[in-house]
Every structure is written in C-alpha cells, then in structure tokens.
Amino acid sequence: MLYNFRNDYSEGAHNNILEALLKSNLEQENGYGLDSHCKEAERLIKNKINNNDADIHFVSGGTQANLIIISSILRSYESVICASTGHINVHETGAIEATGHKINIMESDDGKISVEGIKKILDEHADEHMVKPRLVFISNSTELGTIYKKEELKEISEFCKANDLYLHLDGARLGSALASRENDLTLEDITNLVDVFYIGGTKNGALLGEAIVINNKELKTNFRYNIKQKGGMLAKGRLLGVQFVELFKEDLFFEVARHANLMAYKISDELEHLGCEFLTKPVSNQVFPILDNELIEKLSEDYGFNIERKINDNKSAIRLVTSWATEEDAVDEFICNFKKLYK
Amino acid sequence: MLYNFRNDYSEGAHNNILEALLKSNLEQENGYGLDSHCKEAERLIKNKINNNDADIHFVSGGTQANLIIISSILRSYESVICASTGHINVHETGAIEATGHKINIMESDDGKISVEGIKKILDEHADEHMVKPRLVFISNSTELGTIYKKEELKEISEFCKANDLYLHLDGARLGSALASRENDLTLEDITNLVDVFYIGGTKNGALLGEAIVINNKELKTNFRYNIKQKGGMLAKGRLLGVQFVELFKEDLFFEVARHANLMAYKISDELEHLGCEFLTKPVSNQVFPILDNELIEKLSEDYGFNIERKINDNKSAIRLVTSWATEEDAVDEFICNFKKLYK
Amino acid sequence: MLYNFRNDYSEGAHNNILEALLKSNLEQENGYGLDSHCKEAERLIKNKINNNDADIHFVSGGTQANLIIISSILRSYESVICASTGHINVHETGAIEATGHKINIMESDDGKISVEGIKKILDEHADEHMVKPRLVFISNSTELGTIYKKEELKEISEFCKANDLYLHLDGARLGSALASRENDLTLEDITNLVDVFYIGGTKNGALLGEAIVINNKELKTNFRYNIKQKGGMLAKGRLLGVQFVELFKEDLFFEVARHANLMAYKISDELEHLGCEFLTKPVSNQVFPILDNELIEKLSEDYGFNIERKINDNKSAIRLVTSWATEEDAVDEFICNFKKLYK
Amino acid sequence: MLYNFRNDYSEGAHNNILEALLKSNLEQENGYGLDSHCKEAERLIKNKINNNDADIHFVSGGTQANLIIISSILRSYESVICASTGHINVHETGAIEATGHKINIMESDDGKISVEGIKKILDEHADEHMVKPRLVFISNSTELGTIYKKEELKEISEFCKANDLYLHLDGARLGSALASRENDLTLEDITNLVDVFYIGGTKNGALLGEAIVINNKELKTNFRYNIKQKGGMLAKGRLLGVQFVELFKEDLFFEVARHANLMAYKISDELEHLGCEFLTKPVSNQVFPILDNELIEKLSEDYGFNIERKINDNKSAIRLVTSWATEEDAVDEFICNFKKLYK
User: Fold this and answer.
1) Burial letters for C215-225: b for 16+ Cβ neighbours within 10 Å, e otherwise?
2) CB contact under 8 A, B77 and C226
C-alpha cells in the first residue's frame, strides 16, 4: 500500500509531545490527574477559552469522554438527542445505553442537529410513559465532516436554554472544525454556547487524550467520581497533562489542525475540479467523494480508506481522512494517481 | 520533600519503552488494537505464558480492565466474591456495581481469598432471592502486598472449578508478585489456574496499559465489543502494543519488578532489624510498617506515603511503595533518616 | 362523559376471576409463585400451547415482562430490534435502555416487523464498534391493532433462526389477536415459532398479570432470579395463579377476547360503511379511524379516547379501544351519536 | 401440615378489601394510578400522616418500592448504607446493584442501624476512589422483628440531615412496628423524620401493594417516570388505590397489625415462660426462638416455618411469623403441641 487515508489516528504523536514526555519522564508527580502538568494544562486551556470558571478534566478517548459526560448529567429516565449519524448512536457499541439512557434519534443528512429536529422530538415526548429528553449531543466537526457556523450553534444553544435542555459538544475533531476555511467560531464562543464539551487530542496530534470542559456549574459536582467509576482515570494522568500543555502552550493545537485541513482541501479541490461530487461539502479533514465502484476498487489497491455509504448500484461515497501527520508528498502522489484512474 | 514513596506510578515509563514509542511513531498502523505492535505483543505474551490459545487484549488501566472483564462474564443476577480489602470493593468508586453486579465480601486480614471464605459465601446463597456468586476475584500481589503461593492458588482454582465459579486474577502488581523472594508461581502456572487475568503494565514500567489474558474459551466470545462499549478501546492502540513488546520481548517486565522489590526489601529488612512490626509480612513492592504516630508525622515532613490504617490511638500502619524507578540512593537516605527518628 | 373507549384496562376483572379470588382467599399457600394455583395455571397453559417443556412464569405487567425477558436474554453489547411504534421503543420510559441495551429501530407504518427490515439492520451492524443485534421484538396484536398471519410469523421465525437471533413476542393483546376474524395462528403455532412470549392477562379480563412462556431451553436458566431482581416477583403470587387458572381452565381467555373484538368490529364496520378511513385495517380490539378535527372535538365531549396521530392540518387518527367489559349498549349508543355528528 | 407460620403473606386479603374490589369492579377509571380510588387513598394517607405536602405513589411490592426509590435518589457514584441483615442487602437478588449502586454494609446484630455505624462508614469514604454514601436505608420493623424507638429514629434523622444523607424507611412491616407494645412512634413522627418511606400493604392485609410516601421535596421530581421505567406502574392502578382506601379510611391498617402482633405475643410470651431464649426480643409479628435442632425437626413435621440461623451445633433460631389472618385456634394448638415437645 502506498499510503493510508483511513483515519486521523494512524500515526503516533507530534514530535513536540514526545519530546515533552521524555523530558518530564522521571519527575515524581501525583497520580490520577492531580499532577503539575495537568494543572498547567488546565490553566492554559482556561486561558484559551477565556473562562476561568470552567472545570477541566482529561480522559483517554472519545467514547469514554462521551459516556462519562452523558451518564453524569442524566437522571435514569432522561434521554439524549443525537443525529442519526452521531458517534454515540452508531459507533460506540451502545455505550450510552449501557449506562442506562435512551438516545432519541434525529434523522440527519449532513450529520448536524437542527432546532426543528429537536423541537419535533420534544413534541413527541409528552408524559411519564416516555423518556424525558434532557440533553442534546452535537459534534463539531460532525461524523460527515461538516461544521457548525456561529449562528447555527447560537440558535441551538438558545433553544436548549429555553427548553431546559443541556447541550454537549463532542470535539473529537474540534481542531479541524475550528481550523476550517468556513469556520467562524472560536473556543471562547463554544464555551459560551454549550454546557460541556471536549477538545479532542487523539485525532489532533496527541498519543491519546481528550480534555473535557465543563462550563455549566450544575454539571461540575463530583465529576471526578464519574471518571473514576467508569475506568477513565489514568494512574499516570501526567501523560495527558503533558500532552495538552504542548498542544496549548502556544498554538500547536491549531497548527496541526490547519495542516490536516490543508491536505484535505488539496484533495477535495482537485477532485471537485475533476468533476467529482461529494456526500457533504468538504470543509474539514474528512472528504467524502462519490465515486464509481470500479474506480474505488482500483484506488483501494494502493490506498487505505473506508467506504462510507453505497449511493446506488454503481456509485459509493468513500471517506478520505488527513491528519497532522499526513505527508504532502503522499497527497500529491495520490492526486496524481487519482487523475490517471479518473477518466 | 526529599522523595515520594506514595505509589508505583509517580514517574513516567522505562526508557526502553519511550525509545520504542519514538522509533515507531510515524509508522502508519491500524487503529483500535489491530496494529502490528499489538499483534507482536500478543505473540510474545502467548510465548511467555506458554498458551497459544489464549486471547490477549490491551486496555489502559486496572479499574477499566476489572470492570470490562467482570461485566463481560456475569449475567445480571450473578455476583463476584472479593476480599474486603479488594480493589474492586474499595477503590473503584463502585465501578462493578455500576455495571449491575453485587460484590460478595469475604473479610480478610491479609488481602487474600481462602477456600473457606468462598465456601461460606456459597452456603449463604441458596435461592433466587439472593444473588448467585459466579466469579472469584483475587489480586496478586494483593492490596496489602501479600502474594499467593502455588499451592494456595491451586486449591482455590480447583474449588472454583468444582463449584462452577470462574476465577479472575487482578495482576496490577503481578510483576512484583512473580519477582517476590517468596514466589513459586510462573506466568504459565497462572494461565493454567485462572480463567482470566491481567498483567499490569502501568505499575511496572509502562506509561499505561494492562494486558488481559483470557484462558477460558467460554469467556472469549465477542470480548472486543465489551472493550469498545466501556470506553476501553484506544484509537491509537499501538501505544499499548509497543509498550508490551518492550516489556516482554526480553525480560524487562521481570527485571523492573525485581528492582522494585529489592528497593522494598532494603527498607523492610532494615526496619525489621530495628524492631518494627508490619501489617503484613513484606514480600513485594509494598511495605506496611506499623509506627508511632509521632514518628509518622516527622517522616511525612520529608517523604511522601499514605497512612494505610489506624492500629490504635498511638500507632498506625503506613504504606511505602517502590517501583522500577525508585532510586537506590533515595532508599539509602530514607533508611538513614528513619534510623535517626526511630529511637 | 357517556363512555370511555380510551383503553382496555378501564374496568377491574371478569367476574369469574373475582369469584375465584374470594373462594381461595384463606387457603394458606407458598409465596412467590410457588403456590398450588400458579402450578395449576402452568399446567393448564402448557396444555393449551401443547408444550410440556415450556417454562411458565407470572408477572404483574407488560413493561415488567418485557424488561425482565429482554434483559435476561441479552449480553451487555447485544441489542433488540423493534418497530418504530413498538411499545418498548416508545411507551416504556426507556425501560430496556435502563437495563443497558440499545433498541435498533425498524421504521414501520403498520406496527409490524418485516424480514427485510431485520435484514437491513443486520447489514448495518458489522463489527465491535456497533452493538450486535441479537433479539427481535414483535407484538401481536401490534400497537396499531394489526396482527401477524401464520405465514408472516413463520418467515420471521425462520429468518431469526438462520441468523442467530432470538424472537420474543409481546402478547399484551394476544387474546384479541388470536380472536381476530383474520387470525390463522394458534397458541401452539406461536410456541413453535418464537423463543419466548407472554400472554397478556391485564388487557384481557384479569386484574393484572402476564404469563411468560419460555420455549427455548437456553433462555430458561435461572429465570426466577431475573424476576426477583427486577421487582417482578409478588409475595402473594397466588393472585396471578388464581387468575390464569380462570382464564385457561376452560375458554375464558378467548371468550373475553372475542367479545372485545366483536364490539370493535361493530364500531369499525359501521364507520367504514359511513365512509371513514382508518390508520390501519381494523382487525382486533383497537380501531383507528381518521376523522376531521372538528368531529373529534365534538366526540370528545361525550367519549373518552386518545388521539393517536395528526394526519394533516384538518384530520387526525383517534384510537378507540374495546375490552371484555365493553357494554354493547354503550357501543350502540356511540354509533348512534357518531352518525349524528358525521355529516 | 397443621398450620403455616412461615410468613405473613400465606393468605389472600382482608375481607373488606375483597368486598371493595367487587364493589368498584365495573366503574370505568383512568389507568396507571390516576383513578379516583388512588386519589382518595392519597388523601386518606396524607390525613393520617398529617402532611398534605407529601407525594404518595402506589407500587406492587417491597423490592420494587426499594429499587425505584433508591435508584431515583442516587447519582451514579452514590451508595446506600444498610444493615448487614437488610432486605436490600440480602434478599433482593442484587436489585439495588442492578440499578448501578453499591450498598455499604453496617454489621448489625439486631437488624438496626446506629449513628455510630453510619459514622464509621462515612469516615472510611474519603475521596473519589470510593463511592459516596448518600442514603441510609432502615426498615421498621426490621428483618429481625425489632423496632425503632422515637428517640433512636430522631437521632438517626438528625445525623443524616447534618451529614447530607437522605433517610429511607422500608415499611414492609410498618403496621406491625407501629402496633408493637413497645412502639412510641406515629405515622406523623415518621413523616417528620425520614425523607421517604413506604407503608406496606402486602404483609398487612392487602393482596399486594405498598404506598410510597415522599416527604422531601427534592425527591419528588418526575417520580412517576421512575415507577414506569422500572415496570412498577400497574395499568389497573385502581387495584392498589381501592385497597389502600380500605386500609386507611378507618383504622383497618392498624387493626390487622394489632391482631398479628397479639398472635405473636401469645406465642413468644408462652415460650419465654417455658424458658426459651430468642435471637431478638419479640416485639412485633416475627418471633425468633432459639431451639434444639431435635425439637425443630419435630415441630417441622406439623408446622411451616423457616430456620433463620444456626446458633451452634445443637441449636438454631427459627422464625415464626403471624399475620392479620392467623387464627387464634391455630396459635393455641401450636402452643399446646410445643409444650408437649419442649421437655
């Protein structure tokens, strides 16, 4: 295989991060996220989001972050609203249900949640014979690579506040979203608009790690109990702190995301130019071109990628993902080879 | 503070491990534990335990390993038997109960489970108004630093088999147990005697990571579903594979454990010589001397450690822990300072 | 209000049942379903289904029966397939998810499950990042009053067997289904075609009570533990036994269902004659006429019923339910009044 | 067998209750506890407890009441403190753990909870590595027939309030406790001293049914969602309302309890007179005489009862239970036969 565009976690970590791990390795630190590196990372993130009152916690992965956050918020009979394509609905092996909660599904073509969709679900849930929707789950960028504009997020946020719903944003690919050429949101906006979110490290240059940011005071109580109970508290929590210090002490978090996006744009712009259609408009580090099955088969001889969805008997949408580690040479070579195959 | 003996996860990772992470960093690998490093680590562990039929899975921490293993085994109404001091009973924030299962507690002074204790619990559970004990949880070394001799483990194993009970061994500190001067067990013995166990990396030289070993065929089915659902499947699973390759490609796993134990013996032998008593006989990397509260207070000015238990109004047992990273100079200095304080 | 057609549980119990309760009241019996009446009811049901190997258990309600059955079958990562209108999906306040399991929803217009629908869900669930569908939930009659023909149930049953799926039939209204003028199924057929089902008493003449019938040997193990754990085991289990003896010692179960259906047909035949359309074809004790909202409002001044669904801005489908207790005079009067309102 | 003293649910219901069921049988009522009988029963109970602000809900059994109440109160990481002999700890098949919560066990000889015992457990639970005790579970009368005096309950109540603990009283046998010759508590006292309790109907003259009384406003929110989700909401909720109206419209609840106690005293006074010792002092409808095993065996030829506990190789404590239905003649005959066997 020439190159793997299957995902944004094919390689290890950004070099700065590995260097920082080496440098701090023999310092004696407290366990369980109470070390000096986690403290420093918390301080840096609070600065970036311009919210000194937020609570910050580090866990090792996205499914873990989502199940800890969601189960910590909901009472037994409360449910979470999620797009049909949402990660918690499809790709977490029922992790949310395993903590006891129903997911109310909003059908969505672009991976995004709309106020109308939330409203419809609320209208259908009238009494105690049905669950009580209490939380809205969105991801930015979404599982289909789309992003929320400031106005959209604001509308959802206001609707949630007005309807006694919490709002949680899954930021596994938040770096790529905020670095998108179409983005008009900042970390500070997000902090102001959602009750809780997490900033993804794993898919943005770290070995592992997601930073949970809790803005709503009500959701902060005893949160570490939830982390510990669900197996999310690393004994050597420093491993997460050290990495997030590197990502946020300067601009590394955004820098690596910009690189990932640039590599994706290179591919999507060229394919668009060739006449390709896309499942969703390419704006972040995931590109979903719709291709003839024959072409897909030939491409797959040299490149790693997933088939996202069958479009019809002849065509499918594939998923190409770039990352901080994607080599520009490999991208150029991919484009070159693609052109040859694309008649 | 001069030195921290609070636990065996105060430092990062053994240098070999960091080197291996650096070296493999830019290789493109499959995600979720399906990479070449995990495969190689599995092969190496199967060799060490001399059981090619075992299933090996890597997860990031001990609580996570325990809750995934235990919840994957038990039906809703089944329970797990555990010593009163057991990690799952005391120090996992109800993680096992959060997956729906009762823990049947066997009172234990030395942290170990006995056949008599299991039998008593079985006798008390007669019908469907009570849970059905189905699994025995042991740890080696235990939370009180004690270890199981081969004969003891064999007796428990045989009793479990004869009584339709599964046996799970928590090996968070298995390295230290097997490297104990009193140990007569091998990894191969353990594989032959328990249905499932895990080999602790976090407390034995790794940044994080535990290797779950499933020997009983019945317990293997769809195990990866459980890991994913409980948030235990790292996207960059290579991080765990690379580390366990280092630990088991030669003898590093045992080497670092031997160092930890030697540092502990140095302390315990000297304290015994001075006339100290211990909560449990020191045989692994945890030492529990019983000291005057006054002495404890003075010691705590210079050293980090936990108070394990109040013995009486004047005396308490403290816990001193050593690790692969414990410096011999720091141990010597500790002993020197201890002698000055100890009348 | 002249009369209530809101549901089939507005009245108490059939007179025979009350008489039997009175008669047996002072007999001293074992508790928890181990009494002579439960034993006798089990024998009678086994005779009716012609399956002496079945296990029979009595619980107090439908949600309870469903949650006990489903949670007893599924491993943590397994899911249940259900029609979008299914009771467990909509009207049990997330009871199934509260036991830890995802419901995979099959969109359905008539409340029924199809083999194509199951197949589509199976095709979408490929690996351990998704739940593993393991059980199919159907109800007969369905929440929309429709019923399964023998050929349909056979096809579903065979598909399930061929695809390692269990099949559970919710029989809250099984009496009405089997007494339908379109029915060609027998209790014996059902026993042969599903792994587990329950026979509804609450909506068919009893004060309360559902009889769970387990046909598949694999699902029988320790079932009483599940009942007890979920709070479904009545101390005075005799209360359920006595009632099911009455329902099945002769033909009372079918007799009361036939009466309910006849009352429903009287209404639906007349409304059809008047030109009404229905949400689903009326074949059991639930009738869903589509009416002008204005008419609905007038009807609601004198009659109790629910609005099932908005059809468009002018029309809605209402739900009229009859039961063993529905008085023919009240039905006649309803029809008479309806005619006056229906221009 | 001459007579069964095995429990207080061997017979059906008090005649007044059956009469009321017959009388109300054909009234059309709302389902799910929203009928006129439940409303009237709520009103009557509020009067008896002199607390118009309480919320009252009816469910069918004690395990169900406990699991609904406890799971509705606790957050995921919170636990409930219970005596070692407590019903939720021993005889509910892990129902509480199945809702995700640990039970912290206080060793108890008499079935009662003490402030010292609670305090010890609180002291042992320091941080997020352990569950957070948040609720104290007591039963009155206890599983060993003992009762709480007003002063004791007050002390526990005050301690709980001062330590941010909720207090729940399981009143499965509350009738017998309040009718005890040693009792100095009233229903009104209990309402003032606990956050939530339930009044047992099943063991005090009803066919089935427990009345949950929520005094603490914080615990009232959306409680019906919990009942429905856990399968505790009967479609024909009237069945519970009708019965509690009978129990509380005059004095029936206390009357039947007094009879049960009188029958128990007759036995215990006579046995004490003969020189028998008891496991606990007999004050309610459960009597635990300690007898020679030989005598027990002979008694068991004619009488139904359980062996509570082995005392030594020769002696065991048995449990004799009386109820509203216990016939005085049978008690007299029992005493007569007992005397003959007792040397």
Assistant:
1) beeebbeebbb
2) yes
